[in-house]
Amino acid sequence: MTYKLLDIIQTINVLTRQAHQLWLYGQISQQVHDRIILQLLSSLRVAMDNITKILNAENRVNGKYDALPFIQNIKRFKSVELYIASLETKAPVQSGHSDSSADAGSEPTLKPEAAAGTGKPSDKTQPSATPVSVQ
Length: 135
Description:
The protein is an all-alpha fold. It has helices spanning about 1-25, 30-55, 70-75, 80-90, 100-105, 110-115. The relative contact order is 0.08. Keywords: Plasmid.
């Protein structure tokens, strides 16, 4: 959402600059320049309102967002990358091949302790938590 808002602001900034240059060169009148600026500001206001509605926690279907379960999962997996990798191994792989579902089902799911390691030298032989794409 932040990237989308920054993109909208940058676009409006460019359009405002172009309108100002046209006004400076006498190609548009002051009234047209002012109308363009007001329309651009109105567009920015609408975009910000839409983003606010999307991010507003009061309008969520399941109530307010609670970050505690996510934080507990991250602590259990020791890193965000390992947590995301565990989610990717749980999700079924979709592809055009009929035999890919059998390959995806045969891959074992890593436990958080095994994926994070216990700090012993023997942990170097454990499988990596990096997701592998099915070709």
